[in-house]
Design brief:
The protein is of the alpha/beta class and about 525 residues long. It has 2 domains: about 140 residues, no CATH class; about 375 residues, NAD(P)-binding Rossmann-like Domain (Rossmann fold, 3-Layer(aba) Sandwich). It is about 30% helix and about 15% strand. A 7-stranded parallel beta sheet has the order 3-2-1-4-5-9-13, with helices on both faces. The longest helix is centred in the middle third of the chain and has 21 residues.
Length: about 525
């Protein structure tokens, strides 16, 4: 028997076909195309017989929207205005404002669910809902009481997302391990005083279960990112923690409405290219033989001809690094378990995120940190390969806005979204722009070295997220200016020693390697 479905109702549900034009009951499998295509459409009015209008307890006839959480969305209790297919209530505004209690077997509505319902109503065309009920309480839905758990909330993306949540009136609890290489001084001072802080491991059952108590939704942003070949750590932190999160929600029948998860552009592997002869192609990773010989460009996997890089949409994935594979496994876990158990899930595939608070002490924190520290020491930034790699960079503030958007918008449920920058840029152009912002006119150095496992050209299309009303507001110059200002405010004493040590370590581990064009380290 399904949770929250009475015997008579269950038999009715069983007689209905569980079909949807965008849904395959088998779920997504590795290598599946169109993984993140629309699974559930926007609000759709149900066409019910005029002789059987749905009623709330107050006797007010109301029109209902399709429940965003289920494939069989046509079954509603006409007495309570609740979906019969899952335990979660989806009541009309009229019914909710009349003060109805949830139907038997349904958990009491959470503040996040109420916020989501309001957002859904605001997106509905005029006349879809009966707004006849009036409520004197200026905040009848208790939106300011929603509590959100942010895993990794002390980190780079997490802390900016926390700032925005607090600003919008959410109660926030942070769960963070305060990994020493990222947070060597413990809890960072930039966190708002109002947030609840829990130090612990997202993979620890007792810790995570305790952190989930009383929350309405989860932003699962805790992640392991590195270039080191400690493969099992990627899967433990990124994938196993996600499975544990859903396990605890289902096991405890927790009234958690939505989980937003941090994924990555890394799920696309080498990316998307156009071959004049073969059309769109998705090449495999570049071989060690090609890279060691200084042959940087990607070729068509079918005819070996030259190809042009294309913006990557969400339809095809092909991860080839442990990090990328662990993120795709995270996505499959969240989407399939979420659909099965009615827990709305959204995966966010971030491009290269830059901006203030990007830890100095994390070797993965990347190009802005490496280049800035060298430029402020009046040394040239060192570009891998030939510096012609194409990337897109997105401001962390824009990423935080995207996280909040999909949290509150039910049109995002059960989908994956690219979160990318406004333009694509070559690494060499990035270095020259950063040099001007730092006020140091030094030409970048082209070392000819390469980082094993790096992609050649990857830049994302954010068209899907734009349809929900998001766009990146900060260009690359703003991103780099904000970051350099923050770095200068922190002081860099001792940081360059860490940078030099991490570079030596990556070379000793075979992550940064020399090519046949490495000798001399020419500048261009």
């Amino acid at each position: 028997m399904k949770l929250g479905v009475k015997p008579a109702e269950e038999s009715l549900a069983q007689r209905q076909p569980h079909q949807h034009p965008h849904h395959d009951e088998t779920g997504d499998l590795p290598g599946a195309r169109a993984l993140s295509g629309p699974v559930f459409p926007g609000p759709i009015s149900l066409h019910l017989s005029p002789s059987l209008p749905p009623l709330c307890k107050a006797g007010t006839a109301v029109k209902l929207a399709r429940c965003p959480a289920v494939v069989n969305a046509g079954l509603f209790c006409r007495r309570h205005d609740v979906c019969l297919y899952l335990k979660r209530c989806y009541r009309s505004v009229s019914a909710f404002a009349s003060g109805l209690s949830p139907a038997r077997g349904h958990p009491r509505s959470t503040a996040l669910a109420d916020r989501v319902r309001l957002n859904r109503l605001s997106a509905e065309p005029p006349g879809q809902f009966d707004h006849s009920s009036t409520v004197s309480n200026p905040d009848p839905f208790g939106l300011s009481m929603a509590k959100v758990l942010v895993t990794g909330g002390a980190g780079f993306i997490g802390s900016h997302t926390v700032d925005l949540l607090v600003e919008k009136g959410y109660q926030v609890r942070i769960l963070d391990s305060l990994q020493e290489r990222v947070h060597p001084r413990g809890w960072p001072s930039y966190l708002p005083e109002s947030v609840e802080r829990v130090q612990g491991d997202v993979c620890d059952r007792r810790t995570l279960a305790s952190a989930l108590e009383g929350v309405s939704c989860v932003l699962h942003l805790a992640a392991y990112q590195d270039y080191m070949p400690d493969f099992s750590t990627f899967y433990r932190v990124n994938t196993v923690s996600t499975a544990l999160l859903f396990e605890l929600i289902v096991e405890g029948r927790l009234p958690i409405e939505k989980v937003v998860l941090a994924s990555s552009q890394a799920v696309y592997g080498e990316g998307k290219y156009l071959c004049p002869a073969c059309g769109l192609v998705y090449p495999p990773f570049r071989s060690e033989e090609k890279l060691s010989g200084g042959d940087w460009e990607v070729r068509c996997p079918h005819c070996s001809g030259a190809v042009e890089p294309q913006p990557i949409d969400e339809s095809t994935v092909s991860p080839h690094t442990a990090y990328g594979i662990s993120k795709y496994a995270l996505e499959l876990t969240a989407l399939n378990l979420g659909r099965k158990y009615g827990i709305a899930a959204v995966n966010m595939r971030y491009s290269i995120v830059q901006g203030p608070r990007n830890s100095f002490y994390n070797a993965y924190s990347g190009i802005a940190r490496r280049f800035t520290l060298r430029l402020l020491a009046e040394e040239p930034p060192v570009c891998y390969e030939d510096g012609q790699q194409i990337r897109d960079y997105v401001h962390v503030h824009d990423v935080a806005r995207a996280n909040l958007l999909v949290l509150e918008d039910p049109r995002a449920d059960y989908r994956s979204f690219n979160v990318g920058g406004p333009t694509s840029t070559r690494v060499l152009e990035f270095a020259r722009l950063l040099s001007r912002i730092c006020g140091v006119e030094i030409e970048p150095m082209i070392s000819g070295e390469y980082r094993f496992g790096d992609t050649r050209h990857t830049f994302s299309s954010w068209d899907s997220l734009a349809k929900l009303g998001w766009r990146p507001e900060n260009g690359l110059e703003t991103i780099l200016t904000d970051y350099v200002d923050w770095v200068r405010a922190q002081g860099t004493a001792g940081i360059r020693d860490f940078y030099a040590d991490s570079e030596r370590r990556m070379k000793s581990m075979g992550i940064v390697r020399a090519s046949s064009s490495s000798a001399g380290g020419e500048s261009r």
